[in-house]
Amino acid sequence: MTEYWGDIDSERASLADQLDDLTEAEWKAPSLCAGWTAREVVAHLTYPTRETWGAMLRGLVKARGDFDRMTHESAIKEAAPFSNAQLVAGLRDIVGSRELAPLTKPSEPLFEILLHAQDIMRPLGRTRTMPPPAALKAVERIWSMGFPFNAKKKLKGFRLNATDVDWTAGEGELIEGRVEDLLLLVSGRTEIALAQLSGDGIGALKGGMTG
Predict the structure, then answer these.
(1) Which of 20, 22, 62, 135 is deepest in the core (most CB within 10 A)?
(2) pLDDT in tens, 94-107
(3) Is domain 132-210 given the CATH code 3.30.1760 in the classification?
(4) Which of 147, 145, 58 is nearest to 107 (CA)?
(5) If you ran DSSP here, which 8-state letter would residue 109 be given?
(6) Cα distance from N-terminal residue to C-terminal residue, the chain
(7) Beta bridge partners of 82
(8) Boundaries of CATH 3.30.1050 in the chain?
(9) CB 105 within 8 A of CB 114
(10) Is the pTM for the entire model greater than 0.85?
(11) Residue 72 CB neighbours (<10 A)
(12) Beta strand 168-169 pairing with 157-162
């Protein structure tokens, strides 16, 4: 699993640099995560390095077993005491950290930093490109997982093909494009991903979203 950490460190450091340029209004702006501000997403990115079994279990109980609610509530709590500059400093501080949240592997913080950076920057109209080799590792991991993405089930009947790296998955109607956009697709960011992808399967997948 050591092959993930170099990518994680690089993405954490470069995102911190990009966050330095955000305005106060942008920090408060909605992210692609429904109901989350940019501030809360940044706080969430640092929390897994400190999360313990006890904190996770207490959070689940408080959220009545709702994992998404628990995650958002922890992000709100983590963001509240800190200024924007302190949140950026917190992200820089975990460059080089090898701490993991309970039940996770290094592949999780990799796809988290790649995806949540997009969650922050895309709604702001700011460009942030994923390194294709890192995005490839992330898409392979999410495709192999069940909960919480369930990508194989949700994208059954479609064949995904990356045009910038050697990766294909699934069977059926073709959906293709850059691996970073396929990563957005398999992680459930469907609408924004489809705007950048092509193939015979696009119409069918859009129809499934509205049907």
Answers:
(1) 135
(2) 999 998 887 788 99
(3) no
(4) 145
(5) H
(6) 40
(7) none
(8) 132-210
(9) no
(10) yes
(11) 18
(12) antiparallel
